Fold:
Amino acid sequence: MAGDESTIASSDRAEGFSDAIFAITITLLVVEIPRPPIDEPHLGRHLLDAWPEYAAFGVSFVYIGALWLNHHALFARIGRVDLRLHWINLFILGTSALLPFSTAVLAGAFSADAPTSNQEAAVALYALVALLTSAAWIPVFPHLSRHPELLANPEEGDLIAAQSSRPWVGVASYGAAGISGWLVSPIVALALFVWMIAYHAVTSEGLHANRVARWLTPPGRARRAIARRHAE
Structure:
């Protein structure tokens, strides 16, 4: 069905719809920050006590922003979409839309009046949602490499295939974050979250885009394909 011309269309509508979902998702982060009680004294203290919400907002804002940059860079190379790619894209958007919820739970668990025992479950939830978000990207690169006719430049099929390791890094890192956050310390999980946000940001244009991204490329066929492209 993916090769049926009747199911292939321009990528413009898919990209516009995706941008709208990312815009709504990133805006919902601020909605999850509770408003302090303005009818009580010590407003400044209440504002300061809400620092976990501000921190969680900042981290997830950068995270969703990096996801959007990755999505934007991907669709800059896509000329047309088929039905399967539409479904893959919907799973990417659906998992990303869960992030405001997991962000609010994470911030609430680290608030001053919350039991510290809740932190393990909160980081595990955030890790699970982020893991699902990374897993949703797994099919996109193999599908595009098998169907280069969907690309704006069909000759970039090998370059697209070389990106296949990126979502697996997220799956492994977020899985490790959830397990270590539950069994060892939530701080370890938070450190892994920051690492993955940095990874998403550095590789947003692809593993070939800059020196650090190329250094993060695993040895093998992908690195050779990127090296050939970089040599050109």
